[in-house]
Automatic annotation (TrEMBL):
<dbReference type="InterPro" id="IPR039420">
    <property type="entry name" value="WalR-like"/>
</dbReference>
<dbReference type="GO" id="GO:0005829">
    <property type="term" value="C:cytosol"/>
</dbReference>
<dbReference type="InterPro" id="IPR011006">
    <property type="entry name" value="CheY-like_superfamily"/>
</dbReference>
<feature type="domain" description="Response regulatory">
    <location>
        <begin position="4"/>
        <end position="120"/>
    </location>
</feature>
<dbReference type="GO" id="GO:0000156">
    <property type="term" value="F:phosphorelay response regulator activity"/>
</dbReference>
<keyword id="KW-0804">Transcription</keyword>
<keyword id="KW-0902">Two-component regulatory system</keyword>
<feature type="domain" description="OmpR/PhoB-type">
    <location>
        <begin position="138"/>
        <end position="236"/>
    </location>
</feature>
<protein>
    <submittedName>
        <fullName>DNA-binding response regulator</fullName>
    </submittedName>
</protein>
<feature type="modified residue" description="4-aspartylphosphate">
    <location>
        <position position="55"/>
    </location>
</feature>
<dbReference type="GO" id="GO:0032993">
    <property type="term" value="C:protein-DNA complex"/>
</dbReference>
<keyword id="KW-0238">DNA-binding</keyword>
<keyword id="KW-0010">Activator</keyword>
<keyword id="KW-0805">Transcription regulation</keyword>
<dbReference type="InterPro" id="IPR001789">
    <property type="entry name" value="Sig_transdc_resp-reg_receiver"/>
</dbReference>
<dbReference type="Pfam" id="PF00486">
    <property type="entry name" value="Trans_reg_C"/>
</dbReference>
<dbReference type="Pfam" id="PF00072">
    <property type="entry name" value="Response_reg"/>
</dbReference>
Length: 240
């Protein structure tokens, strides 16, 4: 686990001790010695840091104000607040303005390292869950190679957009991709895509499938297969 930490600490001996233990873990740190410098460093490149250790008692601008300003820039960067104060009200105040953890000085460096690792793991797990939820919401259909959003009428094959699909071509693909490898007869596709009241010929399906294939194959998506004597199916499991 490689981390880049913004250490906000005005006590040089504490900063030196923490830096030594961070180095043993293979972590990198930038040090800010007062609240103004801390906010300026974070504001300059917020994405640079995986975590902040923040002393509560700082010159120029205290840790509470720093945490507020950091949270205004990034609602998610993990913050561990370090302080010599041990009262419950101080802890509630620190956590209330956005700190994720609260460690009272003097503290064991090994215990701090364990807190940092646990907090980082928790944040990573939450991000993974959020990413999965966002992905599931973005695309109603996801197969090994294809993603389809019905709301946006968007089709991606290996993250390449399939463009210029007509409404019926999109509906054909969406219908078949919902049930990969299931064979649909032409009559079934007429009913599902055109509706029960459609009285056209089966060759209508063939013509639309032909055009759909041409547009898919422009991005290498040979995923519509003909099952002779029966109909068509969607299958991208064999795509390389």
């Amino acid at each position: 686990m490689s981390l880049r930490i913004l250490m906000v600490e005005d006590d040089s001996s504490v900063a030196e001790m923490m830096g030594m233990f961070f180095k043993k873990e293979g972590w990198q740190q930038d040090i800010a010695v007062d609240g103004v410098e801390a906010v300026d460093m974070f504001k300059e490149n917020a994405d640079k840091y995986d975590l902040i250790t923040l002393d509560l008692n700082l010159p120029k601008k205290d840790g509470i104000q720093v945490a507020k300003e950091v949270r205004a820039i990034s609602p998610t960067v993990p913050i561990i607040m370090l302080t010599a104060r041990g009262s419950e009200s101080d802890q509630v105040l620190g956590l209330g303005i956005g700190a994720d953890e609260y460690v009272t000085k003097p503290f064991s460096p090994i215990a701090l390292i364990a807190r940092i690792k646990a907090l980082h793991r928790r944040v990573m797990m939450e991000e993974d869950v959020q990413t999965q939820e966002n992905t599931n919401q973005e695309y109603e259909i996801q197969t090994p190679h294809l993603k389809i959003s019905k709301d946006r009428r968007e089709v991606l094959f290996d993250d390449q957009p399939v463009v210029d699909l007509t409404p019926k071509e999109f509906d054909l693909l969406y219908t078949m991709a919902q049930k990969p490898k299931q064979v649909f007869s032409r009559d079934q596709l007429l009913e599902l895509v055109w509706g029960y009241e459609y009285y056209g010929e089966e060759r209508t399906v063939d013509a639309h499938i032909k055009k759909l294939r041409q547009k898919l194959e422009k991005v290498g998506a040979k995923v519509i297969q003909t099952v002779w004597g029966v109909g068509y199916k969607f299958d991208d499991s064999q795509v390389k």
